[in-house]
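To the wet lab folks,

You asked to see what we're planning to order before we commit. Fair enough. Below is the target structure as tokens, and below that is the sequence we designed to fit it. If anything looks off to you, flag it before the synthesis order goes out.
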């Protein structure tokens, strides 16, 4: 059985991806800060008959990251790491002139430092896999300049660059930065609470991620909408 570590898996895209992988027979190690929601997500994924380990905690904690990788090792290894957990830096988002520096530090710590830390911890297992892969969940805010999205966007731009360099340094792995596009998530609601325009559900973009795993294109940055259109 293939084994995936997914951070931020209690809701939104992380939870939808976990359920889709479980339906394909993947064993899972799931992370999120909220224990009740994470337990619920794990129960839903386990309905498919796969092994699911749910470990609540903060990915910014090195000890917690070590626990995630240890859990994957007990399941047989790690074939995929999905860095999906994210912090905004401010809720709701504010202009850079007002962005608390502590909030920016938190966004960088969760979205960049912790993401690299988890990959570093898991690298021996990923290298040993026949199809090791890393997915960094990115954002169009990392490539475009949107007012109030500066702190979060800067963290995602840094994540994109780390993913690009990792792909060069680890040619035996596939490393994909994926911009999922607009989605109806709690993260977006916290970022822009007065925006009630309809947005796609996270499950609608999961097929783009599955396509990457099926076809294993070269390491690089991909947009989920284009992956879905080309299918």
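Sequence we intend to order:
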């Amino acid at each position: 059985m293939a084994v995936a570590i997914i951070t931020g898996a209690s809701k939104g895209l992380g939870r939808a991806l976990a359920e889709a992988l479980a339906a394909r027979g993947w064993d899972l190690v799931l992370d999120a800060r909220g224990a009740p929601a994470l337990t619920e997500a794990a129960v839903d994924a386990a309905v498919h008959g796969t092994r699911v380990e749910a470990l609540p905690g903060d990915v910014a904690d090195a000890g917690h990251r070590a626990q995630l990788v240890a859990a994957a090792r007990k399941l047989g290894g790690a074939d995929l790491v999905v860095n999906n957990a994210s912090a905004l830096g401010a809720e709701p988002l504010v202009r850079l002139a007002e962005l608390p520096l502590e909030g920016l530090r938190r966004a960088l710590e969760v979205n960049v430092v912790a993401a690299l830390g988890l990959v570093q911890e898991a690298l021996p297992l990923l290298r040993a896999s026949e199809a090791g892969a890393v997915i960094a969940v990115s954002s169009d805010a990392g490539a475009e300049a949107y007012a109030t999205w500066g702190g979060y966007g800067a963290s995602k731009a840094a994540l994109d660059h780390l993913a690009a360099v990792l792909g060069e340094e680890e040619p035996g792995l596939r490393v994909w930065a994926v911009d999922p596009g607009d989605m109806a998530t709690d993260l977006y609601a916290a970022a822009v609470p007065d925006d009630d325009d309809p947005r796609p559900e996270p499950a609608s973009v999961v097929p783009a991620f599955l396509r990457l795993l099926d076809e294993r294109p070269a390491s690089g940055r991909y947009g989920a909408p284009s992956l879905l259109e080309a299918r």
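Structural context that might help your review: The helical segments are 12-23, 35-46, 62-75, 101-128, 150-169, 186-191, 206-215, 224-229. The mean pLDDT is 97.

Thanks,
Computational group
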